[in-house]
Specification:
This protein folds into 2 domains: 2-93, Outer Surface Protein A, domain 3, CATH 3.90.930; 156-347, 3-Layer(aba) Sandwich (NADH Oxidase), CATH 3.40.109.10. It is built from 12 helices and 14 strands. The protein has helices at residues 33-40, 60-72, 82-93, 98-106, 115-128, 155-162, 176-187, 255-258, 264-267, 278-282, 289-311, 324-331; strands at 2-5, 9-14, 17-22, 27-30, 46-47, 76-78, 189-194, 203-207, 218-224, 233-238, 243-248, 270-277, 315-319, 338-347. A 6-stranded antiparallel β-sheet has the order 11-10-9-12-14-13, with helices on both faces. Helix 7 (176-187) runs antiparallel to helix 11. The longest helix is centred in the last third of the chain and has 23 residues, at 289-311. The N and C termini lie far apart (74 Å).
């Protein structure tokens, strides 16, 4: 049996002692300096029997005990094991540094709160600490220029004003054209730009949302529940030919099982799932700031989708509360190269679910 150190380890400190974390497996463990020394010497594959020879002054049984513990906790990889293969894939294909890797894997599959737990948590917050102001005024600044309020009844402003996040949908089906427009607004290709750069394909797709370097890292999947002339199931949207391809007509999980047990996701007519393909961006931009750009682009796409939904008099609500392991299994995603980052659920909104308070009468603006 040959072993080497996992490539996804970081060391922090808790209560003055080292805390070892494998951010791929989400394992953490307090360790001593002897453990760290073993890991430091395990850069390359070597026989498990070789480790006691590295410490002639220490009983072999003690060294073996440490090594076995590191294997059990996933800090030392066993050659040809599933964990080792995943570790090797990370080493060969993750082009950003440890900081981006720690964030990427460290935020996956968090312990989401259900409705009751969230209510209890918010009550505790309000009791234990004062709420943070959600707006900032210009009070105290000089040369304040008043701006005339725009007309929200016509044009793009009317569409933007109509957009609301509603977590209660009626069981009505929606037109296929509405789904088409939402997909095209967020992901559709409007043309191609000839970059005249050397390479097999110098053309970059142009879309209605900005993308760093024209890399367009997102693919769209659609969880269809009630769309006219479209059978329920999960589809992939191909921006290249503006088509839907059926992935499965018998999803192994309901939307709420994929999105942190949020029951309202099951009520929507459809949900557009935005899956990031990180290699598209890291191929050109090796600095981890590009990871931040990938996440920002989900917001651009999501906003266009919600506006297209509003244009069809439909309600939409985005969410980033995802069970990552369920998404990987359901959509066949590569754990290292892909991730479900964002989703927008669309349907006929319950008209009584949201009541907009008059802007001019709001206590924070009517001074």
């Amino acid at each position: 049996m040959r072993l080497r150190r996992a490539r996804t380890l970081v060391v922090t400190f808790a209560s003055g002692a080292p805390l070892l974390q494998n951010y791929m497996s989400r394992q953490s463990l307090p360790v001593d300096m002897f453990t760290l020394d073993i890991l430091a010497r395990a850069e390359d594959w070597q026989s498990a029997d070789a480790f006691p020879h590295l410490y002639p002054g220490t009983a072999p049984s003690v060294v073996d005990h440490y090594v076995q513990g590191l294997v059990e906790h996933g800090y030392l990889c066993v050659e040809h094991s599933p964990a080792a293969k995943l570790d090797e894939e990370y080493e060969s294909s993750w082009n950003w540094d440890t900081v981006a890797g720690l964030y990427h894997f460290g935020i996956q599959d968090p312990p989401w709160l259900d409705t009751q737990q969230n209510a209890e948590w918010m009550n505790e917050l309000y009791v234990s600490k004062p709420p943070i102001p959600l707006m900032m005024s210009n009070e105290g600044l000089e040369d304040i220029t008043p701006l005339e309020r725009p007309n929200l009844d016509t044009g793009i402003m009317a569409t933007m004003s109509a957009r609301r996040s509603v977590r209660s949908f009626k069981p009505d089906p929606v037109p296929l054209e509405a789904l088409r427009d939402c997909l095209f607004a967020g992901l559709g290709i409007t043309g191609f730009l000839n970059t005249q750069l050397p390479g097999e394909n110098p053309y970059l797709p142009l879309k209605m949302t900005p993308s760093g370097g024209g890399r367009n890292p997102y693919e769209g999947f659609v969880y269809v529940s009630r769309v006219d002339n479209l059978a329920p199931g999960i589809y992939h949207y191909s921006a290249l030919d503006n088509s839907l391809g059926l992935v499965t007509d018998a999803p192994a999980a309901k939307p709420s099982q994929l999105f942190a047990q949020q029951p309202w996701t099951d009520e929507a007519a459809f949900g557009i799932l935005l899956v990031a393909n990180f290699e598209r961006m890291s191929w050109k931009y090796p600095h981890p700031n590009a990871y931040r750009v990938v996440l920002m682009e989900a917001g651009h796409i999501g906003q266009n989708i919600t506006l297209a939904a509003a244009e069809h008099s439909l309600s939409s609500t985005p969410t980033g509360a995802t069970f990552d392991s369920v998404a990987q299994s359901l959509l066949g995603l590569n754990k290292i190269k892909q991730a479900l980052v964002y989703a927008i659920f669309v349907g006929a909104g319950d008209p009584g679910a949201f009541e907009l308070e008059n802007y001019a009468a709001h206590p924070q603006t009517d001074d």
